[in-house]
Design goal:
There is one protein chain. The protein is an alpha/beta fold. It has a single domain, classed as Vaccinia Virus protein VP39 (Rossmann fold, 3-Layer(aba) Sandwich). It has eight helices and seven strands. Helix 1 runs parallel beside helix 4, helix 2 packs across helix 3 and helix 6 packs antiparallel against helix 7. The longest helix is centred in the first third of the chain and has 20 residues. The chain starts with a helix and ends in a 6-residue tail after the last strand. The relative contact order is 0.17.
């Protein structure tokens, strides 16, 4: 089995249980933070939309949304939600190839749990900014490097997730960790993925991307949220 096939196998398995693990009141708190960081009812491009958890919350708040999700298994799960939302099955790198054809004109850009999966997070941040206009915002959310698996589980309980569901969340991630290794998936997906994020954000701030927006803000106990100005320049 090729590396690509093993990688696809991991995501096809993960997609099947993704909503059970993450479509919870805890992630709902994250969505509320993202929504409140943007002007009311402003259009949004949701990059790395996964199964549509964040997209559905943004639509519910009255926003026009275009979603982007390159993984076939995740995109198929997204389609099952039957949201009245355009779904682009393309990567972040491919999005700027045809300026204006993919994003909602004048849209803000949202990327939740995407940055830490990229081979080059700094380049990813730049691309996200290029997709959004100079008078628009980019909202990035990624796991807090200080929060491990048990911290996430505790935060879910505080948010009202039932204890049995939280226990399944922990068990599934203990099982997924070795599977990720076998499938050659990035180490950031395993139990040590949280440790990688802090250095990425610090590097982003040193490179000038953060500019006047400063350091990421901790939300929902286990995530970091960073709000960036859009650039609207071709990649």
């Amino acid at each position: 089995m090729t590396h690509f096939s093993r990688h696809r196998l991991f995501w096809s398995i993960y997609a099947r249980i993704y909503d059970q693990l993450w479509d919870t009141p805890h992630l709902g708190v994250v969505c509320d933070h993202v929504d409140s960081a943007l002007p009311p009812r402003a259009p949004v491009l949701d990059v790395g939309a996964g199964t549509g958890i964040v997209t559905s919350r943004l639509v519910r708040s009255g926003r026009a949304v275009v979603a982007c999700e390159p993984d076939p298994a995740m995109a198929d799960r997204f389609a099952r939600r039957q949201l009245d939302v355009p779904l682009l099955r393309t990567t972040l790198a491919e999005l700027p190839a045809a300026p204006g054809s993919h994003a909602v004109p004048g849209s803000h850009v949202v990327a939740v749990n995407v940055l830490h999966l990229l081979d080059d997070p700094i380049d990813g941040l730049r691309r996200l900014r290029e997709l959004s206009g100079p008078d628009r915002l980019v909202v990035v959310v990624t796991p807090d490097p200080t929060a491990g698996l048990l911290n996430v589980a505790a935060a879910q309980r505080r948010a009202g997730v039932p204890a049995l569901r939280v226990a399944r969340f922990v068990l599934w991630h203990l099982l997924l960790a070795p599977l990720a290794v076998l499938c050659g998936v990035s180490s950031r997906l395993r139990l040590d993925w949280y440790r990688d994020v802090e250095a990425q954000f610090r590097a982003a701030c040193r490179s000038g991307i953060c500019e006047q927006f400063g350091q990421p803000r901790r939300i929902a106990d286990t995530y970091l949220m960073l709000v960036l100005p859009g650039l609207g320049e071709p990649a």
